[in-house]
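Task 17 of the worksheet. Students: predict the tertiary structure of the chain below and write it out as structure tokens. Keep your answer in the requested format; marks are given for formatting as well as content.
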Amino acid sequence: QLVESGGGLVQAGGSLRLSCAASGVGLDYYAVGWFRQAPGKERERISCITDDTTYYEDPVKGRFTISRDNAKNTVYLQMNSLKPEDTAVYYCNAYSAIGTFVWDWGQGTQVTVSS
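Model answer:
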């Protein structure tokens, strides 16, 4: 089970750090992605981290940083220079060896950016 936290209300230009914590299983075994779903839109992947590589989609490239702390069994998403269009519910999930998601989606954490 993965639990997302760290969301909140922030003004445009502000920062938040999201956490994705795992219990009962070592998260370092998996590639982990951060996803978001804005109202009325489909869930989209925004970033992913493997053993030694990070990926970012264009809307967040240069502003968001994904990292992992294997000792804490947690993956983070540092979000800087936030924009109103970043407002969404943010989720994390892990990928299996065949590219499917390991867990069911959790409740996510709400990020609201005011202009």
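Marker's comment: The mean pLDDT is 95. The CA atoms of residues 17 and 78 lie 4 Å apart.
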